[in-house]
Amino acid sequence: MPDAALLETRGLKRHFAVRGLLNRRIGTLRALDGVDLAVEAGEVLGIVGESGCGKSTLGKTIMGIHQPTEGEVRFAGVRVAAPGHPRPKSLRARLQYVYQDPGASLDPSWTLRRSMHEPLVIHTDLSRGQREERIREIIAAVGLPVTHLDLYPHEISGGQQRRIGLARILCLGPRLVILDEPTSGLDVSVQAAVLALFRELRERFGLTYLFISHDLAVVRSMCDRVAVMYLGRVVEIAPAAELFAAPRHPYTRALLAAAPRIGGPRVTENFTLQGEPPDPSEIPAGCRFRGRCPLAAPVCAEEPALDFTGPHGAACWRWREAARLPSAASSS
Ligand SMILES: Nc1ncnc2c1ncn2[C@@H]1O[C@H](COP(=O)(O)OP(=O)(O)OP(=O)(O)O)[C@@H](O)[C@H]1O
Ligand code: SF4
Ligand SMILES: [Mg+2]
Known about the structure:
Blueprint: E1 5-19, E2 25-40, E3 44-48, H1 55-63, E4 70-75, E5 78-81, E6 95-98, H2 112-123, H3 128-141, H4 158-170, E7 176-180, H5 188-205, E8 208-212, H6 216-222, E9 225-230, E10 233-239, H7 240-245, H8 250-257, E11 307-309, E12 312-314, H9 319-324, H10 328-331
Helix pairs in contact: 2-3, 2-4, 3-4
The protein binds adenosine-5'-triphosphate, iron/sulfur cluster and magnesium ion (MG).
Iron/sulfur cluster is lined by residues 250, 287, 289-290, 293, 295-296, 300, 304, 316-318.
């Protein structure tokens, strides 16, 4: 991994106990099961995968909302999370997690000014005047007039509430922002405005994003690189253009086949996703995609690691065969 990575995860795991009668532990749910990632400063790394594959758990474990079960998180070269390792206070503001709708957390009985001041009072030693100055700068950066600060949440639109929610986070001067499904529930025109705002803010404040999304079209337009997760692991990672043009892992090919509207090579019906992913408390031995994979073979009884050529890695014994199979686009 390059030395300059802003964020690194090494063998990161987060398991949850599965409990039965009388709260007795009856199993282990492996939500995150060994993730190695390196994110460069200024980069936008997309995280995609079916519901329940561990995307939010990855974001929350990086943030310190969940303690890792194993492995570690390093931020700017410093270990910030590991089992039993207390999170350095000084880093809290530098890493921020944005839920689907950051505006929803605004207190309805507070003016927007009070909501904006609150995180600065908690996390910084700035004087009232310094806080006000910073708030005015950020409010302008998210495209709202300063006069809005005297309003209450119900007096502004949902889109403006979302901007205020983001502004509260940006006030703290984060370097890495984890955006978890930031455009879900938005109609297309609002979505385009929100994405434009993310791009502008990234440029202006030198932000790095971890961009978690179900929407492959949005990921393709926003991200420099994309990591595909399956049952708690990264099964493919590549520069965005390459991943969408030449996917290697059978699971990635199936995901793309299920979203044909994003263009790129449509893949054959061989790669249609069958059924639901297994329960993460019962992950199969060997390749975890084996039960759903059209290319499964005896070699797949052993779990594959990510196999890289340049920046493109796929955790599949047979990715070369998978990548060579004709796409619907090229065979028609
Ligand atoms: N606090 C928790 N306690 C127990 N299990 C959890 C907890 N948080 C998540 N899980 C389980 O971990 C697995 C991964 O969940 P996670 O929320 O990370 O998935 P996701 O990829 O973000 O899904 P979605 O796309 O639906 O948001 C799921 O099986 C989920 O039920
Ligand atoms: S390792 Fe085998 S089962 Fe797993 S994705 Fe590759 S071909 Fe399919
Ligand atoms: Mg999630």
